[in-house]
Design a protein that fits this description.
5-stranded mixed β-sheet, Rossmann fold, 37% helix
Length: 180
Amino acid sequence: MGTVVLIRHTSVDVPAGTIYGQTDVLPDHTFAAEAEKLESEVRPFTGFSVFSSPLTRCRMLAEALFPGREIHFDQRITELDFGDWEGRRWKEIEQLEEGRYWFDHYQTARCPGGEGYPDLYSRVRDFLICYREKFAGGAVIITHGGPFRVLAGLLKGMNAEGVWDLPSPSYGGMELFELE
């Protein structure tokens, strides 16, 4: 039916271990070099439909890789909303009772003031259902680690529980899927 190319945004300008989820952080100072590396890899897909999270780290990459092209920005493929934890350190959250509960039940528990993985899964699945017909001519989707894993799992025919066992893609990571 068509090829779908998933790309995770490039490195971000936040200290390691910081929770940034839906916080609109900027790409790291390495952005130009990382985008240039990806340019040659996406060249075969320049005629594809392009979809992106509207957050700056994805938007900038989409615009750098596909200048002058129509880009469909969609809120449904933004990262998990970590709510009250955004901007805090994972090490700090691990010490909290609610943090330990979330780590033990991350497949079902919500972040305080934010989302849970079922919410993320549901909105990313809705995105895929909404645009699946457009993917017939090929699609590039620039997104975040969480939505990347959900999309990869759905494109592989996995159930919701199996998606979270997939490895998180590296910054600037790319994976291709052939739809039938």
